[in-house]
Amino acid sequence: QVQLVESGGGLVQAGGSLRLSCAASGRTFRNYAMGWFRQAPGKEREFVAAVDWSGVVTNYANSVKGRFTISRDNAKNTVYLLLNSLKPEDTGVYYCATGASPYPRSPSEYDNWGQGTQVTVSL
Known about the structure:
0% of the residues lie in helices and 49% in strands. By secondary structure, it is an all-beta fold. Strands 2, 4, 5, 6, 9, 10 and 11 form a 7-stranded mixed β-sheet that branches. It has a 4-stranded antiparallel β-sheet with strand order 1-3-8-7, with no helix packed on it. The N and C termini lie far apart (40 Å).
């Protein structure tokens, strides 16, 4: 089982930036892809971004496209999410997860999850 630890969350004003990190245990990732999701209170967990094992193929939710960037460093077993031009609606707990398929999108296509890191965007 892969252990994932998210970090980098915090409080930021609208228009600001954060970089989230997700460190995986071991020297290799268990599955093909890594993804980021977020969840606000009372809402369903939603897809944010994903990257394949190579780091070449990425996928983003329309709501974050052009503002967020997902990347990975396989040598460090770490995936990153750069959040630029943050909006209050970006507020939520951000989770990283390992994918169970090469190009997963839905939460059901991920099999290991971190505990999340809180991102709060103020006005």
